[in-house]
Design a protein that fits this description.
Number of strands: 10
Structural class: mainly beta
Helix content: under 10%
Oligomer: single chain
Number of helices: 0
Length: 114
């Protein structure tokens, strides 16, 4: 079992930045490929970014490519999502999960005002 807790969300103006964190506890975090997902009201959940267990490989949705950066620190059992040049369409609740989608955090809200 892996417990995940997201933090770092908030209200920001368009063009601003936020850094989300996902703190893991329980089973070995470093053994899992991880990802960030988001869901806005009335929209389907979107797979925003993912990272391999070692951190060597990353993947991004086209909608965030060049603006968001996913990273992880296995020594700290923490994954991050640096979000720059935020747009109103980035608004939503952001969740971290393993890429197998077995373990989920409770999410953190990101709101980008225009």
């Amino acid at each position: 079992q892996v417990q995940l807790v997201e933090s770092g969300g908030g209200l920001v103006e368009a063009g601003g930045s936020l850094r989300l964190s996902c703190a893991a506890s329980g089973r070995a975090f470093s053994g899992y490929a991880m990802g960030w997902f988001r869901q806005a009201p009335g929209k389907e959940r979107e797979d925003v970014a993912s990272i391999s267990w070692s951190g060597d490989a990353t993947r991004y949705a086209d909608s965030v490519k060049g603006r968001f950066t996913i990273s992880r620190d296995n020594a700290k059992n923490t994954m991050y999502l640096q979000m720059n040049s935020l747009k109103p369409e980035d608004t939503g609740r952001y969740y971290c999960a393993d890429t197998g989608e077995r373990y989920w955090g409770q999410g953190t809200q990101v709101t980008v005002s225009s």
